[in-house]
């Protein structure tokens, strides 16, 4: 185009493409099929690849673009309302950001078209969206992997746990064997906690954990955490000093989760303190909330390690996973649980070799009225359950047989089967009062077995207990929907199983 004035020079200097089109011969309905190019700058010719378009009459919006652009031209021309959109030009392999505005009145039939090439930005955005989708899919697969891993680990842990419980019933066990039994029980418990930590971290990351706040003694929370860590403490010869408030100092927290926090902090202190070290736990309750600190005179942390202490899968204090073990998730999990309580968890250390201290603060402590604190401790009632007909269903024969042996020794009539259809047949023959039922069976699932048993005439006298390696929240919801009254996650100690049976019997007795 010739340069005849400042406006023309401005058009030519623009990096964005600009053209002015005139609408030709619209039909009675205002549909546009032909346009004439009144003006076009060099950027337009460069983007379109078609020079010398001024004065050109065309039945396409401009070479390489789609016909539906005529609809945009017609709408802007008729209404006078500007339009902005992003569109692709497949034949050019480009993406454009387009702005349309009417020039003059409707009778002038002119529309200005300003567009810029955003192909690179569009490609970057598509890559970002793809990466986000891939990350989301990877996170989903990670969650599924953790659930499957937990299931696969829990299945062999169940018969080991049962076997250890059976060994414990042997009278006159030699001292050496008793020490081995204690060591094996400790290691099975540690492995079970690692599996639970993995799943809990996944649940918290997805906001799938809800706190169950109850009035609880802070002293009992500390005592339970110390008891869980006692075998590790004794194994390394550590001395532990505990300073806790009286039993009547109660707090409104999720006792199970807060005990988990303190257990993780103590495990961490034990792990990173050389043998014969010194650990301390102190706790207090005041108007600001509850405060708990776990300190040690162990390895300590540098400033850099303090910054990274709560990052997932981080091995702190010397980065020596072979020496200290652990998955690097205990502190991350502890921090998330404290944050769910609205609190904070801080790490302190004077430096490497000078020990560390972790401080928990949970605000808004609500003292509970006297006498309202629920009983805690063993699930087993003071009175054992009377002899009961019990069916155990598990495709892991070792798990089924060892649990049957435990229950038989407790005086119950038991039968173990190893598939879903066999379970239905055995149940019809035996008419049990309780069924311990695995979910992942080789022929039909435990859910299907539960639904099938739901139609039996003896169902009202039957208690279904899921005993499975699947322990995610959705697994518990699904078992409940299928008709299970209880859901236990492997491995389960004999104490919990027998206690649950006693509680079921006590509940039945009150309804008779």
Q: What is the makeup of the main sheet?
A: 6 strands, antiparallel
Give the tally of structural domains. 4
What is the alpha-carbon Rg in Å? 36 Å
CATH level-4 homologous superfamily of the largest domain: Histidine kinase-like ATPase, C-terminal domain
Total helical segments: 15
Give a written overview of the molecule.
By secondary structure, the protein is α/β, with parallel strands linked by helices. The protein folds into four domains: 6-117, 2-Layer Sandwich (Beta-Lactamase), CATH 3.30.450; 137-205, Helix Hairpins, CATH 1.10.287; 214-363, Histidine kinase-like ATPase, C-terminal domain (Heat Shock Protein 90), CATH 3.30.565.10; 389-511, Response regulator (Rossmann fold, 3-Layer(aba) Sandwich). The chain is built from 15 helices and 18 strands. The chain has helices spanning 6-13, 42-48, 69-79, 119-167, 175-205, 218-236, 255-271, 303-308, 321-324, 330-340, 397-409, 420-430, 446-453, 473-482, 494-511; strands spanning 17-24, 34-40, 57-58, 83-89, 94-103, 110-117, 214-217, 239-243, 250-253, 278-286, 289-296, 344-348, 356-363, 389-393, 413-417, 434-437, 463-468, 486-489. It has a six-stranded antiparallel beta sheet, sandwiched between helices. Strands 8-10-11-13-12 form a five-stranded mixed beta sheet. Strands 15-14-16-17-18 form a five-stranded parallel beta sheet, sandwiched between helices. Strand 10 (278-286) and strand 11 form a beta hairpin. The longest helix has 49 residues, at 119-167. It is elongated.
């Amino acid at each position: 185009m010739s340069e005849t004035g400042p406006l023309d020079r401005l058009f030519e200097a623009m990096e964005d493409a600009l053209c002015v089109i005139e609408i030709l011969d619209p039909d009675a309905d205002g549909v546009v099929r032909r346009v004439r190019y009144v003006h076009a700058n060099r950027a337009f010719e460069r983007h379109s690849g078609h020079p010398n378009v001024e004065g050109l009459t065309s039945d396409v919006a401009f070479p390489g673009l789609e016909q539906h652009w005529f609809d945009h031209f017609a709408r802007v021309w008729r209404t006078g309302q500007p339009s902005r959109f992003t569109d692709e030009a497949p034949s050019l392999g480009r993406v454009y950001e387009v702005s349309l505005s009417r020039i003059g009145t409707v009778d002038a039939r002119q529309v200005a078209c300003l567009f810029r090439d955003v192909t690179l930005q569009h490609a970057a955005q598509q890559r970002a969206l793809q990466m986000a989708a891939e990350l989301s899919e990877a996170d989903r697969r990670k969650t599924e992997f953790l659930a499957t891993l937990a299931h696969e680990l829990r299945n062999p842990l169940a018969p080991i746990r049962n076997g250890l419980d059976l060994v414990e019933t042997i009278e006159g066990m030699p001292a050496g064997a008793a020490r081995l039994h204690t060591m094996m029980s400790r290691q099975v418990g540690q492995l079970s906690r690692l599996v639970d930590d993995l799943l809990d971290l996944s649940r918290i990351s997805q906001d799938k954990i809800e706190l169950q706040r109850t009035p609880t003694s802070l002293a009992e929370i500390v005592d339970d955490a110390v008891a869980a860590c006692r075998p590790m403490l004794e194994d390394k010869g550590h001395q532990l000093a505990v300073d806790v408030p009286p039993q009547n100092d109660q707090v409104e927290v999720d006792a199970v989760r807060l005990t988990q926090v303190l257990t993780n902090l103590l495990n961490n202190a034990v792990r990173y303190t050389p043998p014969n070290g010194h650990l301390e736990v102190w706790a207090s309750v005041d108007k600001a909330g509850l405060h708990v600190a776990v300190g040690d005179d162990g390895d300590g942390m540098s400033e850099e390690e303090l910054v990274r202490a709560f990052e997932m899968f981080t091995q702190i204090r010397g980065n020596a996973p072979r020496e200290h073990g652990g998955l690097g998730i205990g502190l991350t999990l502890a921090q998330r649980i404290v944050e769910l309580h609205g609190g904070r968890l801080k790490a302190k250390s004077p430096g490497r070799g000078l020990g560390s201290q972790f401080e928990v603060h949970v605000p808004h402590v609500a003292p509970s009225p006297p006498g309202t604190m629920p009983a805690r401790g063993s699930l087993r009632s003071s009175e054992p359950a009377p002899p009961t007909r019990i069916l155990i269903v598990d495709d892991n024969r070792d798990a089924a047989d060892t649990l049957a042996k435990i229950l038989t020794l407790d005086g119950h009539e038991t039968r173990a089967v190893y598939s879903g259809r066999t379970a239905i047949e055995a149940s019809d023959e035996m008419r049990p009062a309780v069924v311990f039922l695995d979910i992942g069976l080789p022929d039909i699932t435990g859910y299907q077995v539960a639904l099938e048993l739901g139609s039996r005439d003896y169902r009202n006298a039957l208690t279904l207990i899921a005993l499975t390696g699947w322990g995610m929240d959705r697994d518990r919801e699904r078992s409940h929907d299928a008709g299970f009254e209880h859901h236990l996650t492997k491995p389960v100690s004999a104490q919990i199983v027998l206690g649950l049976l006693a509680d079921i019997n006590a509940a039945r007795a009150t309804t008779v």
